[in-house]
Fold this protein.
Amino acid sequence: MVVVTDRLPLFTGIELLAPARLRLVPAEPPPLSRADQAAVDDAWDEAVRVKPGLFDGPVAASGGLRWDEAQPGTLVLTWLRATYRRYVSPRTPGSARWLPHLFVSVLQPTDDGALMVGRMATWTSSPGRWQLPSGTGEPPETVGDPLEVADLRALAARELLEETGTELPAADLRFWRLSRGSQGDVGVLFLAPPRPAGALRASYAALVDAERAVGHEPELDQIAFVRVEADLPALGDPRGDVDPILRAFRQDAPDLAAVGDPAAFPLGRGR
């Protein structure tokens, strides 16, 4: 069974937001007409014919962001319960079929101030793209249960482990920023504690060995460490949202020695 966990948006520019607090509220996806539903189903059936192992699992999509006028500094993120088939048909902004992504990403710094990035493997939907360890949003298992920042934090910790082999308690991740794409996609970004680059490389190498031992290829076929924007061209294109995120990370902690100091970053864990 193949779960489509790598279908993240192809960025055309993002805005980074730094709320003091984040609140998530549920909503229903826009209803589809009979014709739109048929088009979505046909696109999914065709995708399954190409990749028979695809699984139409549950997904949490983005319903938009707004500032809470009653609580200054609070951003409200509306999320929608859907399934992966909504991401297979052609995505035309403004149409009922359009469903923006909600995803999580992890900034994993090294103890000398670089950020770890990974390159998507050839078998993924975005082969060759450099990005942070990331994953598509997931709704609560029980319909009607709330989706909380803690759930997104746990998902981010799991994606970091599954994609890079680096394991850490979810509680160690600090809410850092929200990214909003030009087409409505929203990313919730978490900051991990600094670790030595050698330890991160060793964890990734162990993950690759374990995956290949059971006949799998890792989702990220390579990792790298970028410290300043001058390091980015060497990665090649496409680079997803790495450029603006590295720039904001560097602005938060311009002194590389300050990366390990929580006081260097203005945001806390988020609620």
Residues 208 and 218 are 6 Å apart (CA to CA).
